[in-house]
TrEMBL record:
Primary location: cytoplasm
Name this polypeptide is given: Ribosome hibernation promoting factor
Entries under InterPro entries matching the protein: HPF/YfiA_ribosome-assoc (IPR050574), HPF_long/plastid (IPR034694), RHF-like (IPR036567), RHF/RaiA (IPR003489), Ribosom_S30AE_C (IPR032528), Ribosom_S30AE_C_sf (IPR038416)
Record-annotated Sigma 54 modulation/S30EA ribosomal protein C-terminal domain positions: 130-184
GO MF entry, a single one: ribosomal small subunit binding
Pfam families xref list: Ribosom_S30AE_C, Ribosomal_S30AE
The protein's assembly and partners: Associates exclusively with 100S ribosomes, which are dimers of 70S ribosomes.
GO cellular component terms, semicolon-separated: cytosolic small ribosomal subunit
Cross-referenced PANTHER family: 30S RIBOSOMAL PROTEIN (PTHR33231:SF1)
Keyword annotations: Cytoplasm, Translation regulation
GO BP: negative regulation of translational elongation
């Protein structure tokens, strides 16, 4: 497994990196057999440390957690507990056909944009029809079955998930939580 342990404007010592690797190895060994990589980012805001962790599994699941604390080790331990809980929930829902996946989930590169919101809603100017792009990032679109996509969306607590249906070559699919509590699935023709 590949680890990327970094600090934003703070130095991360060897002892903390070893602690992070050991704790994550225990959690991942307990619940997930085939992790691909993990990214852990530490930062400090005032007197409080923040830890953001992301683990990518070969089944397509991305487990994410974030925590805050006044001590950096306690901050990571809280974050690790959240990851442990997510992976435990995932393991409970995992079906046998997921274990048969011999190859990691295929990820396709895509562009993701953040558009500026309109401050003045009364403007009738033509410039509001062309929103301003304030950020451009690269994102990954996984190739999953519909069941895996719904499970990943629910485990991540996300309102929507964009994916490619691995059963069909129908382009990009979307699953989302509807206002009535059900799950919606958009499958283009």
């Amino acid at each position: 497994m590949r680890y990327q342990i970094t600090g934003k404007q703070i130095d991360i010592g060897d002892a903390l990196q070893t602690h992070v690797r050991n704790c994550l190895d225990e959690v991942i060994e307990k619940y997930a057999g085939r992790p691909t990589d993990a990214a852990i980012i530490f930062s400090k805001s005032g007197s409080e440390y923040t830890c953001e962790a992301t683990i990518h599994l070969s089944t397509g699941l991305t487990a994410q957690a974030k925590s805050h604390d006044h001590e950096i080790y306690a901050c990571f331990d809280k974050c690790c507990e959240k990851l442990d809980k997510q992976l435990r929930r995932y393991k409970r829902r995992l079906k046998d056909h997921h274990r048969e996946r011999a190859q990691p989930v295929e990820l396709l590169a895509a562009s993701s944009y953040v558009l500026a919101s309109s401050d003045d809603e009364d403007e009738s100017d033509d410039s509001t029809l062309q929103p301003m792009i304030i950020a451009e990032m690269e994102t990954k679109i996984p190739s999953l079955s519909v069941g895996e996509a719904v499970m990943q969306m629910e485990l991540a607590g996300a309102p929507v998930l964009v994916f490619r249906n691995e059963k069909q070559d129908s382009g990009v699919n979307i699953v989302y939580r509807r206002d009535d509590g059900n799950i919606g699935w958009i499958d283009p023709n």
